[in-house]
Amino acid sequence: MSATNTAVQPPADAAAPVRHPEAPAPGEPVGSHYENCFGCGSGQPHGLHLATRAGEGVNVTAEFTVRPEHQGAPGLAHGGILATALDDALGSLNWLLRTISVTGRLETDYRRPVPVGSVLHIAAEVTAVAGRKIYATAVGRLGGPEGPVAVRADALFIEVKVDHFIENGRKEEIQAVMDDPDAVRQARAFEVNP
Ligand SMILES: CCCCC/C=C\C/C=C\C/C=C\C/C=C\CCCC(=O)SCCNC(=O)CCNC(=O)[C@H](O)C(C)(C)COP(=O)(O)OP(=O)(O)OC[C@H]1O[C@@H](n2cnc3c(N)ncnc32)[C@H](O)[C@@H]1OP(=O)(O)O
């Protein structure tokens, strides 16, 4: 049984999500939004190195290989790390909508323990959009994309502007991103959403 907070359930008048025409084609990798992201960046040695691909709808798939540095109990993935994996896959849905959003609420159900060495097969999709609120869901399975569910989550993401990061992030990291013209162009392009 799962108790679900109404904040992660779309209201009756929410709209169906629309795949952006410039979203990555189905099967294409959804690149990391930031090389130092713990979920998907290549610059974090202990990070999750999530490899995410676009699906045909407003959805993605990803694989997360659980390594010893991700343990909570002996030989098992830490629950917070599993939530991070789902959160990051959900965050990559931004590329399908071409909207920048951040996690407002993430509600996680843990159904099966996830051993070190296993691959978590993640599928995430946007279910509805209402103004700045983006409703999404993610599931992580063991043994393959059709395997038993180990962990799942419902989430509410909130659309923000690039200024959210510029105003709130530590200056050193923001400056480093702003010194990279490609990164600035990519971030700003998301704000021009037809
Ligand atoms: C040129 C430099 C570029 C630098 C940037 C570089 C790269 C960036 C690019 C992409 C990165 C994007 C995302 C990251 C992707 C993946 C990582 C995984 C995702 C994350 O890991 S991301 C980090 C964790 N995340 C946060 O760090 C959020 C902290 N938080 C806040 O920053 C504020 O909280 C915010 C902005 C969320 C809202 O603040 P706000 O002032 O804009 O708006 P407000 O509060 O009015 O909320 C509007 C309506 O949402 C409802 N609402 C809000 N929160 C709710 C909740 N929790 N439950 C139920 N309802 C909620 C309100 O009730 C209201 O509803 P209503 O309109 O009906 O009244």
From TrEMBL:
GO function terms (MF aspect): hydrolase activity
Pfam hit, one: 4HBT
Assigned EC number: 3.1.2.2
Catalytic reaction equation(s): decanoyl-CoA + H2O = decanoate + CoA + H(+); hexadecanoyl-CoA + H2O = hexadecanoate + CoA + H(+); (9Z)-octadecenoyl-CoA + H2O = (9Z)-octadecenoate + CoA + H(+); octanoyl-CoA + H2O = octanoate + CoA + H(+)
Region described as Disordered: 1-30
Organism superkingdom: Bacteria
Its membrane topology: Peripheral membrane protein
Main location: membrane
UniProt entry keywords in alphabetical sequence: Apoptosis, Cell membrane, Cell projection, Cytoplasm, Fatty acid metabolism, Hydrolase, Lipid metabolism, Membrane, Transit peptide
Thioesterase domain residues: 75-137
Location of this chain's protein in the cell: Cell projection, Ruffle membrane; Cytoplasm; Membrane
Enzyme class: hydrolase
Family recorded in the similarity comment: Belongs to the THEM4/THEM5 thioesterase family.
Protein name in UniProt: Acyl-coenzyme A thioesterase THEM4
